[in-house]
Each structure stands twice: as C-alpha cells, then as structure tokens.
C-alpha cells in the first residue's frame, strides 16, 4: 500500500541519496555517520550507543515532544526504529511497516503484509515484530506468518517475497532480520509449540535462499543444509531412541539475536530453548552419556556467506527451564589481563553475564547478574555451569531463579563508550517448576512439560507476588564482572536501553514512564509520562543538526497480556504510537483517563470443584492472552467485561472457534462444553470481584 508518495519525493529532493541507501561499506562506517540509525543496534556491533551529544545531562530536562505518530493497531510494539537520511522505518503489530518523515511524523507510506489474524494463535507473546532491516534501497520485514518481504523504500511496494518456513507447522517470526554482505538473515519462533529452529540467509536482491542452519539435528538423516557438517556431533547429545523431540523437532528456535561480526567475519546466532522445556520429556537423559542437547541455548558462530559452522558456546547444557540464549549480544574489545580481547557480551535468561572470546567461542568469564538458584556458578575451566542437582525438578518442585521470565529477556541492552558499562533491563523473577506427570503434546498449544497451577486469587496473594517479582535497571562492569549501580523499577517487564555521548541512558518503564539517567551514577535526570510503555529500544538520530530521541508507546507483549494484574497500571485499548522528543519541543501531554466499568456479571451456579477446574483450565488455555485473574492489559479484550460472558451459548461459540479469523483460537479439541462453562463461571467470579470493588468506590463518601 503506497500512501503520500509526494511527500517522499519532497524529502528525496532535499537529499541526494535514494531512500534506504545502505550497503556494506556504509554500515561498516556507521560510527562516522552518527546522524543515522541504519541497523538494529545502530552499528554491526549492536552496542546501541549513540555518539550524538547535543542532548546531555545539563539540558535533558528541556526535552519536549517533537511529534507523535499513531499506528493502526492496539497490540504491542517491540520494534527498534530504523532511521536513514531523514526517513524512519518501523513495524507495528502484525508486521505492518510504516515509513515516516523523521522530522515531523508525516506518514510517507504503509505496507501491510496482511498477516491472517489466526496466526496470532501460534505466537506465544503477542503479534509483535521487532523491526525491519534496510539494504540497497529496500526495506525488509519478516512477517509473523513466516514470510520475508523486500519492499521498495521509495513507495512501499513489494519487490519480492519468500516463505521461509514450513507453514504446516506452528512456526512464527517475531525477530528483526539483519543485513550484511548482500544477504538477509532471519530466524523463527515456536519451540514450545513443536518446531525445529533454524536460521536462513537470502540474497538481498533476488530473494533466493543461500544457506540454512538447523539448530537441532535431524534424527532421520542429513537435511542438505549447512548444519549437516555437525549433525553427527549434535546427535551424540540427544536420545535417539526416545523423547518428544523425535516428533516435534526439539525446539531451539532463534527468535531474536543475529549479529554480524565484521572483524572475525562471523554471524553470531543466539539459539533458543528446548521444546518442550522439560528435558526428561524432550530427550530423556541416558546415564553416562552426554545429554547436552546441542545446539540449544547456545551462542553459535557460523560463516556469514555459507552458514558453515565455526564454533559455539553452550550457556545452558541440557536446557530445561526455558533458558534461551536469544537475548541481544554486544560485540566489543575489552582490555582483559593486560591484553585487548575481541569479545561478545551476553546477558541471557539464565542469569549469568558472559564474556566470550569472538575468535574461538572460548569462555573468558561468567558471573551472575541476578540471584541464581539453578547453579552455583560457572566452572572457568570447563565453561559449564555448576548445577544445583535439585534444580531439574524431577523428584520435587524447585523454586528456579531467574526462571523462564529470564534475568534478562529480549529487551535491548546498551553499552556506553564513555563509562564502559552495560545497561541491562533486569528481571528478578523466581518461579516454582514441577514436572508434569500427565504431559500430552497439544497441537497449537504451549507445551512446556511443566505442571500448571492456578494463579492465586485475592489481593493479599497478588501483593505477595508483586513483592517477589522485581525489576531494575542494572549498570554492569563487564571487565570486573560486577554491578556498578542499579535503579529499582516498577514491575519486571521494563523496556530496552540507549546510551549516548551526552552521558545519558534512556529507558521506558512498564508503567509508561520514559526516563533519562546519568550514565555514571544512575541518578534520574528526566522522567515523563510516555502515554504507554516503550518496550523496544529507544534510538537517537539527527536531521539537519537537530538531535531527536525516538521511542514506541504501546500496550501488549507479555507484560500486558499475561501479567497486567502485577503491573502498577493497567492499559486500555488504544492505538500504538511512535513518540519523538527534542530539546525545546512541545509540553508532554497528559495521559487520558479511560473509564471502562465492569457490567454486572451473570450469576452462574457452580460448585467449588467446578470453580477450581475453571481456574486451572483458564490458567492453561486463557491466561497467556487474557491475563492472570482475567485482568487484561489492554491489548486483548478483558473477559470480565465482554458481552459474551453474559450468555453461556455465546461464550461457548467463541471458545469453539466463532472468532478464529480474528485471532481467537479454536479450543474445541481440548475444551468440552462442561470445561467451557467452568471457565465462564471462574471469569464471572473475577468479574463479580471487580464489579463490587467499583461499586464500593463509586458509592464511597467523598473525603
């Protein structure tokens, strides 16, 4: 879809370069071009450091609104904006691409790949996209339903399209593609749903597949892929006679981190968790054998031109906790032991901060950056974690820290070249794990192999959980492997970070604030209401000498799908936005107060046993999208307030597929009529709680 092409012509007339004029040479010299943010982490090193310093510690308090752009959807936005020569390219939910004048927010064109909304049923964590990449006049987006699309940057028209995966399987794509050496690299998602992860490289001009590397081995034989050279080595670490992986593929999906290393000519891949999580179900361990399940939860280096294996470091051998290694990586050079070392810095879900040698994947150091219960440390000689033997939760439940929420998840971290510190949005979120003795793989459902328990009800229980789950911004010294400072944050799902030459660190928080910190001390220098959380990484760019700060604003992602009840503020169904700030900009507008009262819910006769069954089935099938205790965060309907709750037949029709084309799954294969009515009774109880509380506030005497 091409819109406002004339405006693009006007921009082009003032800039001799054609739109998205990015190539290998320009990206390799990105530090000499600080006005632009041309790739996901600004440079190939992905340190998310902006050399711009017009906005600094002395004047940051004078930031105001430059412009704000409203998107078409109300779902979550996790994208990092790309800015090239005065034009911003960004994705919203459902992989929709927007081209925007970076000086005033005027829409230039929109490309909608028309992702079928039913695809959202296969996406664990909202219908999100983490952004685009640009190369030689084209913009590339990977769609949620598995396509890689090249778009003409001049007019938003499709140039070519490739289906990158087997659509008969429950794959999705949420990550941003990367471009280097004339190729476009992309991974995929879906480990818990039953897929086998891989990374592919496509020719940027023609869309032809150049190579593919599978993260888990094929037990049936070679794939005819780059990974065949290490298939036998990987197979030795799996049970080839038993286990869920023989049917589902074992997981390992690389859904985020892909980093091109120009110094060692390596593509670094962060690989995913096992599917299902529980290794004893996925690939039962064999005494006396290597049960590491390569190449799950690893930092994997391959040749960027051919995909040929170079080296790997497995951060969590025999992964069983959803400890992905897909989190963002930073490439840099550190002076360690008196020598300059080319290193990869990584703070993955498992809670250890790794410094890895980029020349051979050797471990230099690893230290916990959050409380860790599953291991006591990492052996510096073997590079293996020193596991707590009870942490694998087979004989008894175990409180795992940091848990599958991750000590750090996909939210980008940054590194300041002034302080040498890495700024990490950290989660301290322990969770009880227990094996599921009755595990059955459910097609189209989230399969972990861990036992589900109903979410505890009542204000006291929820307050206890809020206190247990902590989030903070952590400044980490990667040489000394120790904390420099931290700032506590509300909730655990806070946004990515940006470090700048102005001595600042920017970050959005889960309650919708946007902050600037002193990069050396952590002192808060600027704190405003962004209207909604800025989950993705902030960026900074300049046009005609004026520096801008750009962030997104949206409700959605797991913070507002699953955990809204644990947040300090609940979202509402409003359109997502891009907000851009500059010195001397307009005053920050106040967030509108949205009243969404709960209608009086139906009275449903239900026994205690029925309510408990409804609570458990809700936790299993509904919680992931509609929230703990049926409290929605604003990206999906709040079931306590839906009119379908009033009528059992209407409610059952929705659960059994009446709204499937709108993205609501069809659960008829798993939930019979009695199960659905029990869920409705449970939701009605939560609605009754909300209704009574609202009535109490409404009729309370004014003080």
UniProtKB/TrEMBL annotation:
Keywords from the named record: Calcium, Disulfide bond, Heme, Iron, Metal-binding, Oxidoreductase, PQQ, Signal
UniProt binding sites for Ca(2+): 192, 273, 322
CDD domains cross-referenced by the UniProt entry: PQQ_ADH_II (cd10279)
Cofactor names: pyrroloquinoline quinone; Ca(2+); heme c
Note on how the cofactor is bound: Binds 1 PQQ group per subunit.
Residues binding heme c: 622, 625-626, 664
Any one cellular-component term (Gene Ontology): membrane
Cysteines paired by S-S bonds: 124-125
PROSITE patterns according to UniProt: CYTC
Domain Cytochrome c: 609-687
Transmembrane segment boundaries: none
Active site, UniProt feature: 322 (proton acceptor)
Alphabetical list of Pfam families matching this protein: Cytochrome_CBB3, PQQ
GO molecular function: calcium ion binding; electron transfer activity; heme binding; oxidoreductase activity, acting on CH-OH group of donors
Identification of the protein by name: Quinohemoprotein ethanol dehydrogenase
Organism phylogeny: Bacteria, Pseudomonadati, Pseudomonadota, Alphaproteobacteria, Sphingomonadales
């Amino acid at each position: 879809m091409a819109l406002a092409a004339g405006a693009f012509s006007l921009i082009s007339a003032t800039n001799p370069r054609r739109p998205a004029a990015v190539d290998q040479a320009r990206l390799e010299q990105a530090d000499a071009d600080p006005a632009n943010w041309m790739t996901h982490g600004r440079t190939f090193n992905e340190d998310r450091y902006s050399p711009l310093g017009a906005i600094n510690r002395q004047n940051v308090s004078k930031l105001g609104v430059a412009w704000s752009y409203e998107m078409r959807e109300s779902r979550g936005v996790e994208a990092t904006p790309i800015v090239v020569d005065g034009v911003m390219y960004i994705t919203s939910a459902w992989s929709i691409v927007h081209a925007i004048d970076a000086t005033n927010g005027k829409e230039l064109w929109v490309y909608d790949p028309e992702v079928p909304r039913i695809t959202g049923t296969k996406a664990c964590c909202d219908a999100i996209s983490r952004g685009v990449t640009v190369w030689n006049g084209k913009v590339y987006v990977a769609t949620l339903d598995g396509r890689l699309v090249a778009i003409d940057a001049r007019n938003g028209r499709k140039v070519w399209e490739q289906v990158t995966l087997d659509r008969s399987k429950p794959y999705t794509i949420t990550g941003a593609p990367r471009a280097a050496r004339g190729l476009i690299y992309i991974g995929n998602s879906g480990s818990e749903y039953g897929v086998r992860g891989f990374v592919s490289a496509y020719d940027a001009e023609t869309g032809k597949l150049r190579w593919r590397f599978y993260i888990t081995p094929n037990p049936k034989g070679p794939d005819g892929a780059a990974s065949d050279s290490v298939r036998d080595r990987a197979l030795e670490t799996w049970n080839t006679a038993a286990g869920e992986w023989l049917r589902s593929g074992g997981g390992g999906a690389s859904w985020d981190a892909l980093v091109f290393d120009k110094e060692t000519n390596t593509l670094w891949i962060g690989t995913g968790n096992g599917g299902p999580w529980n290794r004893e179900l996925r690939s039962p361990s064999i005494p006396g054998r290597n049960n590491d399940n390569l190449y799950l939860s690893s930092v994997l280096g391959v040749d960027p031109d051919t995909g040929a294996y170079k080296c790997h470091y497995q951060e969590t051998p025999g992964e069983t906790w959803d400890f992905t290694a897909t989190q963002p990586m930073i490439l840099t050079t550190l002076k360690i032991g008196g020598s300059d070392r080319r290193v990869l810095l990584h703070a993955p879900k498992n809670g250890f901060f790794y410094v890895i040698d980029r020349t051979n994947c050797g471990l230099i150091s690893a230290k916990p950056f959050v409380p860790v219960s599953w291991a006591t440390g990492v052996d510096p000689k073997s590079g293996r974690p020193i596991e707590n033997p009870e942490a694998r939760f087979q004989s008894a439940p175990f409180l795992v820290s940091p848990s599958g929420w991750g000590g750090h998840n996909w939210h980008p971290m940054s590194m300041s070249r002034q302080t040498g510190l890495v700024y990490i949005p950290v989660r301290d979120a322990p969770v009880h794990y227990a094996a599921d003795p009755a595990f059955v793989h459910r097609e189209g459902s989230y399969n972990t192999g861990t036992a589900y328990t109903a979410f505890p009800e009542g204000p006291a229980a929820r307050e206890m959980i809020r206190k247990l789950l902590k989030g903070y911004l952590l400044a980490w010294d990667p040489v000394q492997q120790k904390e420099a400072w931290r700032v506590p944050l509300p909730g655990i799902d806070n946004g990515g970070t940006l470090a700048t030459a102005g001595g600042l660190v920017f970050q959005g928080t889960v309650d919708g604030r946007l902050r600037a910190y002193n990069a050396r001390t952590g002192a808060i220098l600027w704190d405003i209401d962004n209207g909604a959380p800025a989950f993705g990484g902030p960026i900074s760019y300049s046009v005609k000498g004026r520096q801008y700060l750009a962030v997104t604003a949206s409700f959605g992602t797991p913070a507002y799908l699953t955990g809204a009840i644990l947040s300090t503020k609940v979202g509402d169904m409003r359109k997502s936005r891009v907000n851009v700030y500059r010195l001397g900009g307009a005053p920050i507008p106040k967030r509108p107060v949205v009243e969404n009262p709960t209608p009086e819910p139906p009275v449903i006769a239900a026994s205690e046993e029925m309510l408990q069954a409804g609570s458990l089935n809700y936790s299993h099938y509904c919680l992931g999208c509609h929230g703990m205790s049926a409290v929605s965060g604003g990206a999906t309907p709040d079931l306590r307030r839906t009119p379908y709750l009033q009528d059992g037949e209407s409610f059952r029709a929705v659960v059994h597929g009446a709204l499937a084309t709108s993205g609501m799954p069809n659960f008829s294969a798993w939930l019979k009529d009695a199960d659905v009515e029990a869920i409705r009774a449970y939701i009605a109880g939560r609605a009754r709680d909300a209704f009574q509380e609202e009535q109490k506030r409404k009729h309370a005497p004014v003080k």
